[in-house]
# Entry
Amino acid sequence: MKHDQPEADLAIEIHGLSKSYGAKQALADLSLAIPYGGIHAVVGRNGAGKSTLFHIMLGFAEPSTGSARVLGQPSHALSPSVRGDIAVVNEEHALPPWQSVERLCALEQNHYRGWDQAIYERIIGLFDLHREQRVHQLSRGERAGLAIALAMAKRPKLLVLDEPTLGLDVVANQAILESLLLASTLQDCTLVFSTHQMNEVERIADNLILLDRGRLGAYESPDSFRTRFGAWTAADLPIDRLQEIEGLLQHRMIEDRHQLVVIDRGPTVVPELESMGATQVTEDPITFDRAVNAFLHRRIGERVL
Amino acid sequence: MCSDTRDTDEPHSSSQLLRPGEVLVIEITPGDPRPIFRQIVDGLRRSIARGALPPGSRLPSVRGLALQLRISLNTVAKAYTQLIEEGLIESRKGVGVFVCEPKQRLSEAERLRRLDEAIESLVNATLSLGFDTETIVERLRTAHAPLAQPTPDDTKQS
# Structure
């Protein structure tokens, strides 16, 4: 199949992407189609390929095989105008520490036609910033807020944020999430951010992009992802038959109770467990957090007590 | 420049964006096993049943509630869609979202099906707790009675 023709309605279009650094394969045959608009959360364990995906999306790295298009152009050959439509917020792209908030805003404002002062002030207003403060006097969260405000004022089509809430206190964390929602609702901007906080994904993300050892594990809304999982408690389950249970991701025993998490089974798992001799099979509610954990960390046959 | 849009200097809480006189209080609790859209549906349904949101009350826009609760637009839209399907709220084009006059839109069979479904999950959830039927029914009565309102169908029958 040829994938030379870009699709007009996709902000990011990745086909069969692999990227290796020496012997280490960071991404393996990844395909992903992100439409314009919405908030997309990239989730995965450390080393799952998040940074590599971001580097390729932003044109900092070339695919080893496969293709990646961003805003309709190959990511390793973006035109200056498309490059200008992409904003990045991360720790590496630090703001000049000596500059005051006010001066920084004024400088950037002069550089960009179509500067959106209203959204700049809405976002900056979520943080306890004063215009005469210098960047080096700001807290980590305030710097991130300022970076998001400055980025959004340039009306980007794509905003990429690498762990924007990493290490923030609870107040700064909420302000960042609120600024992402503002950015997504007040402008026609596609947001892609990475995080390890599943409650953030569940709250604000329209789509979960789950990376599992360099592969795409899932790409769907957090809620539809969660509903694929079931958590069950049972007694009298023969341990030696666990491997037969299709979709079993996690199993552990606490005293004489078996706890299981299964994927894509729904209630069909109940008769299967009962046919193996299990009794008192009951379903427990499963949180989004636990679903992601079970998907990324398969553990079977663990005995807790 | 910076202070115009700030509401207060207090830490952000979910009630901060409520205007005075607004009664809509929905708590999105991290760790709640219910999905967020379900928490909103349950919260609104409860507020409507209790009369905290009387018929004709105007609800926040999808965007407004999303920003107020700091959750995605899609989640709020999904919750509103479900409540509209249930006939509890209605969207008036260009005006807003409003609480409906109580009415029963579901067929008798569908109502019974949903009742049985709810009872089945209650039974499943309580089976292993060891309460007798009497205790469960009594507790259900206490929880349900203050919320129960006669529906138009009920009044017709009586």
